């Protein structure tokens, strides 16, 4: 018997030979935690949600909710007996019910719950109060997603499963909805597992994130630790937030790159002196300095609102991203020289 609020132990989920996740382990200790699952399309994220909800059986392993076994190779609790709500990415509304009746259907699933949510509050924070009398075929895909989420929340589930909840939402509304939904999930302590393809979204919404690669849960940790301490080259490539460059270990806190020179910091993994490693450089690792004699050529520039990401090229043709505050005194054009602050110090040096 598990002592956590929710746990998946050594489970295999399978929708097809390719869409399969093997030996999956995940634990949620406290009610109200939000877990985000990321991974490439077709890796099996939605299959995991369907299995947790009871819509399909696990191939092996066990799933516990509130210290109760709900799935194993020999036991399968029916979906309607799990008090788990699943909000799909695609429209799953009842076509013969209008919006308000679809939402109220969630309330009927669990009328005695002590964590009821005000329907007026939901309508307002999800911006669907003007849709109450419309039917699913009369609203957009993004609106249908919000109505489906409202219905799931109204059921006051022990576990909420949401699949790409913001995929069809206008960018201008997405940030507000993310903040509103996160606030209500925390306020009502609704334990949630969310599938998303957007790492920025996952890092904002999730207390913990799990990245699924090559049929396994590659890393499960806090967003901060996944970003700053990725545990594999696969995670680095999936997040696409930095570049790997060759470096040589000089001592326990110093390495050297042929283009950048000596780099000091806390080397996370231990390597023997003289080892050649791949060093991860993320946009916020190197600092810009116009007066530095270490200069590299700018080959691209991306405006991100609060910052520019400059892509600079080394003599070895490594393309390194470097972030600069957008209020920096002047722009650097393509093919200009770009100074890098010396000595280079990076708080944690992630090497492979």
Written description of the protein model:
By secondary structure, this protein is of the alpha/beta class. The chain folds into 2 domains: 229 residues, P-loop containing nucleotide triphosphate hydrolases (Rossmann fold); 108 residues, Nucleic acid-binding proteins (OB fold (Dihydrolipoamide Acetyltransferase, E2P), Beta Barrel). It has 8 helices and 19 strands. The strands form 4 sheets. The protein has a 6-stranded mixed β-sheet with strand order 6-7-8-3-9-10, with helices on both faces. Strands 14-11-12-13-19 form a 5-stranded mixed β-sheet, with no helix packed on it. β15 and β16 form a beta hairpin. It is globular, with a radius of gyration of 24 Å. The model has no long low-confidence stretch (mean pLDDT 93).
CATH topology of the largest domain: Rossmann fold
Summarize the main sheet.
6 strands, mixed
Shape: globular
Order of helices and strands: EEEHEEEHHHEHEHEEHHEEEEEEEEE
Largest sheet strand order: 6-7-8-3-9-10
Main CATH class of the largest domain: Alpha Beta
Label the CATH architecture of the largest domain. 3-Layer(aba) Sandwich
How many E strands? 19
Q: What key attributes describe this structure?
A:
352 residues, alpha/beta, Rossmann fold, OB fold (Dihydrolipoamide Acetyltransferase, E2P), 5-stranded mixed beta sheet, 8 helices, 19 strands, 33% strand
Summarize the structure.
Helix content is 22%, strand content 33%. With 352 residues, it is α/β, with parallel strands linked by helices. The chain folds into 2 domains: 6-234, 3-Layer(aba) Sandwich (Rossmann fold), CATH 3.40.50.300; 242-349, Nucleic acid-binding proteins (OB fold (Dihydrolipoamide Acetyltransferase, E2P), Beta Barrel), CATH 2.40.50.140.
């Amino acid at each position: 018997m598990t002592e956590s609020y929710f746990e998946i132990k050594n489970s295999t989920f399978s929708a097809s030979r390719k869409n399969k996740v093997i030996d999956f382990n995940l634990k949620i200790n406290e009610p109200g935690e939000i877990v985000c699952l990321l991974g490439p399309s077709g890796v099996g994220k939605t299959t995991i949600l369907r299995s947790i909800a009871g819509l399909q059986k696990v191939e092996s392993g066990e799933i516990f909710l509130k210290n109760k076994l709900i799935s194993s190779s020999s036991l399968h609790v029916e979906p309607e007996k799990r008090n788990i709500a699943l909000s799909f990415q695609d429209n799953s509304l009842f076509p013969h019910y209008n919006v308000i009746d679809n939402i109220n259907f969630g309330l009927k699933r669990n009328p005695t719950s002590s964590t009821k949510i005000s329907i007026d509050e939901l309508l307002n924070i999800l911006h669907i109060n003007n849709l109450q009398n419309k039917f699913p075929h009369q609203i957009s895909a993004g609106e249908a997603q919000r109505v489906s989420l409202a219905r799931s929340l109204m059921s006051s589930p022990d576990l909420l499963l949401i699949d790409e909840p913001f995929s069809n939402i206008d960018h201008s509304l997405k940030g507000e909805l993310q903040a509103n939904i996160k606030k209500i999930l925390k306020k009502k302590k609704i334990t949630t597992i969310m599938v998303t393809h957007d790492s920025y979204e996952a890092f904002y919404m999730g207390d913990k994130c799990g990245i699924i690669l090559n049929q396994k849960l590659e890393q499960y940790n806090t967003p901060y630790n996944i970003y700053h301490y990725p545990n594999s080259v696969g995670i680095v490539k999936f997040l696409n937030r930095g570049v790997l460059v060759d470096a040589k270990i000089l001592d326990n806190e110093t390495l050297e790159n042929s283009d950048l020179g000596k780099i000091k910091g806390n080397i996370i993994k231990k390597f023997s002196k003289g080892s050649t490693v791949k060093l991860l450089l993320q946009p916020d690792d190197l600092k810009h300095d116009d007066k530095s004699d270490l200069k590299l050529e700018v080959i691209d520039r991306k405006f991100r609102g609060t910052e520019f990401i400059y892509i600079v090229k080394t003599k070895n043709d490594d393309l390194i991203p470097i972030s600069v505050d957008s209020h920096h005194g002047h722009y650097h054009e393509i093919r200009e020289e770009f100074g890098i602050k010396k000595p280079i110090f990076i708080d944690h040096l992630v090497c492979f």
